[in-house]
Amino acid sequence: MSESTTITPGPSESDAASKDFRPIADYGLMADCNSAALVDRYGSIDWLCLPRYDSASIFARILDPAAGHWSIRPRGSFSTERRYLPGTLVIETTFTTDTGVVRLTDAMAFAPGQRGHDLGYDAPHEVLRSAECVSGSVELEMEQAVRPEYGLYRPLIRLLDDGARKFGGTSPLRLRTGVPLEVDGESTIRASFTLGGGERAGFALRWLPLEARTQPEPTPADEVAERIADTAEAWRSWEADHDIYEGPHRDVVRHSSRVLKGLTYRPTGAIVAAPTTSLPETVGGERNWDYRFSWIRDSSLTLEALYVGACSDEAEDFVSFMTSSAGGRAGQGSLQIMYGIAGEHDLTERELPHLRGWRDSRPARVGNGAWGQTQLDVYGELLNSIWLYREKLGELHPEIQAFVADLADTAARRWKETGQGMWEMRGEPHHHLASKVLCWVALDRVVRLAPRLGMHAKVEEWSAARDEIRAAVLERGWSESRRAFAQSFDSDELDASQLLMPILGFLPATDERMRSTIEAIAADLTEDGLVLRYRTDEGEGADGLSGEEGTFVICSFWLVSCLAKAGEVDRAEKLFDSLVAYANDLGLLAEEIDTKNGELLGNFPQAFSHIGLITAAYEIDKARGTTR
Question: Is the pLDDT of residue 460 over 60?
Fold first, then answer.
């Protein structure tokens, strides 16, 4: 849970802290709705990109020990205890030493006094860190190794009276603090200082825009604690405006909603799948992708989860973002499966050979080659979100009306095509069943939206295409040998995406064929009770990549939702509790779980996983009649 704590033995120079890579679960998320940082339980920021989620990194030790970090911690041995301040993404880490106790509070700042729906506008692009001695006396060490562009070079550092400035490259930075600094020949800034009871030391690191004639100054050291408190209040104000969920799982739903808000790029309304790149699905494997972009699928599902957990008012921004990114058209290849967070189309993938990758999992990548794939599920995911938020969106602008109609027309025209499917398989395209089902969803929802579409409505045409898709799915999607709906037409491979069929209303979970599919997936597509996306064996289900992957968190939550919908609430609750137990001490989930050791794998934290948690909690609470 986000407000619980964990005590961990403190490191010495010869043990855990000297190892090259931390477990992914060691990290906590900070965010300002423009970018994000990951800080480990020992006070080291090992991932930070400024000013955007997809900017080149400033600190990337999570991918290579030499790629930059910023640590503040006691000298010598210590134990740690950490939590999120209630209702926030502000991290408080308490260090206990033989001589005293010190509390480190970390945040990414919002604009001063910002509240509620405005969070993320005019972001100062500033990381704030405040160390306060709670009792006794503690000697601390600060080490900041700025390594821009994913650790590609060491910058020029100039010491100033109240901090330092980094020169060179595309990311000028200014550090402000009241403690004396030194810089070595490797461009690493260091400080040693002692705090007594009640004393504080503040640190502020701010990104400086190159085009600014007058560069902004970071927060003065003696005002850092106050600015952190203001940031915490900003987070609580957003939650107060969006705190709608009532049910036994309220706390985890609220926390996951905050995480999803932290992954939303406020200037455009785009939502990133995760704030990191290249954290692997298998240790030492090649399944290492850049998730710092806005997928239609992930973003649409995020909006649906926020509808349950926070009644988000960002839906209009997201729909506008997608409409403008696609140029107002869905056909003729205009609608991609994903975009950059400012609407960029070209997300060309490249490798970073100078990085070792987390635990030597190569290659590290930036960009994502899936942007050019054909994935026919996107029409249904986007239209389902528009349908869900129809009342909040109000009267649709004529451009949106035309775009919605074009989405439906394109789904009706293209549903018979092959594609890579929602899992972005890099092998041969197939007639993926989930893509057909989502095309059905697109047409089902647009028929219901027709009264809002004015002259663009084509109810009879869309209804006929919807019914044709349904008949094809029921006939060609069923595998008699597996007694289940299969991965693709006329195949026998299982795929967890078929769990979406009852969630999206294609068939009820109590339908005999659906119940049989649920049980087949639970029996044959799981490891220790957790669900795989698909088997990676050679053949029809192969994805064009070597190696294996862990169990997929959202797929396991889909199974929870299906069990709850089928009336097996106790069984659903048991699986839900086991999944939540895999979250780290700050309540964060990655993309996958390695059931051999319980380790979190993949990019972190993962929007998909927190989406699944929210919707599964809602289905359980709804089945028990304990949510409104």
Answer: yes
Q: In whole angstroms, what is the distance from residue 249 CA to residue 575 CA?
A: 14
The model carries a pTM of 0.93
CA distance 367 to 292: 8
Three-state SS at 471? helix
The type of residue at 586 is L
Token digits for 431? 């007639």
Question: What tokens appear for 535 in the block?
Answer: 């088997």
- Measured CA to CA, the distance from residue 218 to residue 109 in angstroms comes to 11
For 108, half-sphere exposure in the C-beta direction (CA atoms, 13 angstrom radius) is 30
Report DSSP state, residue 277: B
E strand spans, 97-168: 100-108, 126-145, 156-160, 163-167
Q: How far apart are CA 175 and CA 218, in angstroms?
A: 7
Neighbours of 527 (CB within 10 A): 13
The residue written with tokens 């604690």 in the block is 225
* Cβ atoms within 10 Å of 105's Cβ, excluding its own: 23
Report yes or no: 89 and 35 within 8 Å, Cβ to Cβ: no
Share of the chain above pLDDT 90, in %: 75
Interacting residues of 355 by C-beta distance below 8 A, sequence separation 6+ = 60, 63, 64, 67, 150, 151, 278, 362, 364
The CA distances from residue 510 to 234, 425, 497, in Å, are 44, 30, 17
pLDDT digits (tens, 9 = 90+) for 491-508: 999 999 999 999 999 999
From CA 520, how far away is CA 525, in angstroms rounded? 7
- As a whole number of angstroms, the distance between CA 253 and CA 188 comes to 41
Among 46, 64, 252, residue whose Cα is nearest residue 143: 46
In the chain, how many H helices and how many E strands?
A: 15, 29
CB neighbours of residue 513 within 10 Å: 15
* Runs of H (alpha helix) within 40-101: none
